[in-house]
Design a protein that fits this description.
With about 350 residues, the chain is an alpha+beta fold. The chain is about 25% helix and about 35% strand. The protein contains 9 helices and 15 strands. The strands form 2 sheets. An 8-stranded antiparallel beta sheet has the order 7-8-6-5-4-9-3-10. It has a 7-stranded antiparallel beta sheet with strand order 1-15-14-13-2-12-11, with helices on both faces. The protein is globular, with a radius of gyration of 22 Å. It starts with a helix and ends in a 7-residue tail after the last strand.
Length: about 350
């Protein structure tokens, strides 16, 4: 037992190096494959205030909705399917549900409904599924995946009726639900919202200026800096944790990777909410533009955090529940248009793209 407690959870870190100028770079597709993002953190060395063009993009990110006690069968309402799901205009995620204990739900932009259910709920639902990849010894969790855009799920059809009946009459699954829409897609949600208690939320933006920040001496070849140490340092900066520690310190062993230098100032900016991949794309483009300006630092970073308890992770595959909850990527960009991408996940999850 104590041996298990002493072992650290294993993780998987995939590193990719390329250039924005390379037509074969895969960054756009990689960003698109993490559907549910709750936080984007940006670090701009030698910058004392948020650039106006970046601030404009941050303020233009769409609001999202929190619907309380939403019966999941409402996601199969015919009007909602036709006006929102079939148009690829919405995505959603169950809120404050724990992937290792509760029933969790995700509605992907592709129109796929993913349910991570405990054994009793799965049997009550009566819809085909498969055992979770993350069961320990016995099959205690199951995954149900339904393509709401498939012809077999046309309202009135046998497949459609089976799922609706299972959700409405047998399982009666309800949960608080986060719902996001594409620009201009808000009208398609109004009929659904009108039937339940809901609230609209703007993404939360935070920023502050750091002075005399000790940071790694980063170059585009990144030969001198271990990726794990770099990510640990970026996390410490975002979490306002000092890395000015002595080796004898019992409070924190976090240190800045060597070789290091000092930035007289740096701007730390973050945005939290239900963030779409398209929002992340726009932020990355603004950071690229920032790096092209004169008298700025040679690099900047963007770290994107997925929801720890999302039932899906990379490429819509099942998200692990055994240990940890890693579900993020970090992009380090340089003035010469090269970048280093680090994609992290739990060791038992599907390998990031």
């Amino acid at each position: 037992m104590f041996g298990d407690l002493e072992r650290n959870p294993r993780t998987l870190l995939v590193c990719d190096r390329s250039s924005f100028l390379d037509d074969k770079n895969r960054l756009s597709s990689q960003v698109e494959q993490l559907h549910f993002n709750y936080k984007v953190s940006m670090l701009l060395p030698e910058c004392s205030s948020t650039p106006s063009h970046l601030e404009a993009v941050l303020n233009s990110i769409n609001s999202f909705y929190l619907i309380r006690d939403l019966p999941i069968h409402e996601l199969l309402d015919q009007h909602f399917l036709e006006s929102a799901v079939h148009q690829g205009r919405v995505s959603g995620l169950s809120y404050r549900t724990r992937i290792d204990e509760d029933n969790c739900v995700a509605l992907l932009p592709s129109g796929r409904l993913s349910l991570s259910l405990d054994k009793d709920s799965f049997e009550l639902l009566g819809v085909e599924g498969k055992p979770s990849r993350f069961n320990h010894r016995t099959n205690s969790r199951f995954v149900v995946s339904v393509d709401l855009t498939d012809s077999s799920m046309a309202p009135g059809g046998r497949g459609y009726q089976r799922v609706v009946t299972g959700l409405r009459s047998r399982l009666k699954l309800k949960t608080d639900f986060l719902l996001s829409h594409d620009p201009g897609g808000g009208a398609s949600l109004q009929a659904l919202l009108s039937r339940y208690d809901w609230s609209e939320h703007r993404p939360e933006i935070r920023s502050h200026t750091l002075t005399d920040l000790t940071c790694p001496l980063l170059t585009s070849d990144l030969q001198s800096c271990d990726p794990h140490c770099l990510l640990e340092w970026l996390g410490a900066v975002d979490g306002h944790i000092s890395c000015e520690n002595l080796s004898s310190s019992f409070l924190s062993s976090l240190v800045c990777p060597e070789p290091k230098t000092t930035a007289s100032r740096a701007r730390s900016v973050s945005v939290q909410g239900l963030l779409r991949p398209q929002d992340v794309h726009r932020l990355i483009q603004q950071i690229r533009w920032h790096l092209e300006q004169p008298q700025v630092a040679s690099w900047a970073s963007v770290t994107v955090h997925g929801f720890v308890d999302s039932p899906v992770s990379w490429s819509g595959e099942e998200h692990g529940v055994l240990r940890g909850g890693e579900n993020f990527y970090s992009l380090l960009m340089f003035q010469d248009q090269t970048y280093h991408l680090h994609l992290g996940t739990g060791a038992h999850d599907t390998c990031p793209p």
